[in-house]
Amino acid sequence: MNRINEDALPTEVGNFKENFTEFETPLVAAVRSHNRDVVKSLIKSGVDVNSSMSIHSNTGGGATAMYYAAADNLFGIANLLYYAGASVRIPNGRAVAPYDIARENNHNTMAAWLSEMSYLEDAKNKSDGVSPSYYVPNFDSKVGKYYS
User: Which of 85, 100, 110, 134 would you call most buried, defined as having the most Cβ atoms within 10 angstroms of its Cβ?
Assistant: First the structure.
């Protein structure tokens, strides 16, 4: 499991480490708790923003902090994660990506944002010579529809 040393958590995190389970990374726990301050502290401490939970019955494992930000429509946290290097394309163990869970939960504005960030991520990957691992359709905000 990809976890950080709990003793190395920033002092701002305080007793927060009591809030996460053995299957969660501190970052995933902070996002699931909607705790933006702890997310910021963990990012500043250098956590892997793309690390995932190894086991979770609802997601089949592999759910990242970005997945939970999308699931709960947490724009501020999703933005923090994205600009800290988190991918918007990593699906969980059941092949459900952040975009998919946002749409499933009717968070259409979040889904549109994720689609745009996916496009930017795709453009960056192409310029790096990397093939994207997951395709998210584009959102036409003028029409309000998704297209492929």
Answer: 110
